[in-house]
Specification:
Structural class: alpha+beta
Helix content: 40-55%
Distance between the termini: 28 Å
CATH architecture of the largest domain: 3-Layer(aba) Sandwich
Strand content: 5-15%
Oligomer: single chain
CATH class of the largest domain: Alpha Beta
CATH superfamily of the largest domain: Glutaredoxin
Largest sheet: 4 strands, mixed
CATH topology of the largest domain: Glutaredoxin
Number of domains: 2
Number of helices: 6
Radius of gyration: 18 Å
Length: 144
């Protein structure tokens, strides 16, 4: 579990260190702003931003599109933020916690674990644009 929090903790530590340095230099206002920015970054890179992950086996049973992701991935974060409001209509599968999911991604991505990898309507795409995923959510039957 610590591995999935690695980037969030790193962002938080950098923010605290930078804010402490600014505060010691007499820039209290700047220190507060810097800390706030890095706290937001830590939150965005944490597993808290993504809906609960399911296993690859659970995702395969449902009729929702599947997004294979991993914590700390900036492209996964971009996709997640672009899907605000509809992210629950997608099955999110963390490849770091599910070896079957990592194998599924390697099969699609030429042996690499490139994420996000999305499977929708029987079509697999490695790092698709958010627009493509939203179109699949509108077009196909999706279980709530």
């Amino acid at each position: 579990m610590l591995r999935s929090w690695k980037f969030a903790l790193l962002a938080l530590l950098i923010g605290v260190g930078l804010a402490a340095w600014s505060a010691s230099a007499g820039s209290g206002g700047l220190a507060v702003v810097q800390l706030a920015v890095f706290v937001v970054l830590a939150f965005l890179f944490s597993p808290l931003v993504f809906p609960r992950s399911v296993s690859a086996a659970e995702a395969a049973v449902g009729d929702k599109p599947i997004v294979y992701w991993r914590p700390g991935c900036q492209y996964c974060l971009r996709l997640r933020l672009a899907l605000i409001g509809v992210a629950g209509r997608v099955s999110w599968v963390n490849i770091w916690t599910d070896p079957e999911a990592a194998a599924a991604v390697r099969a699609v991505a030429g042996g690499n674990e490139t994420v996000p990898t999305v499977v929708a309507d029987g079509v697999s795409r490695v790092n698709p644009g958010p627009r493509w995923v939203r179109e699949r959510l509108r077009a196909g039957p999706v279980g709530e």
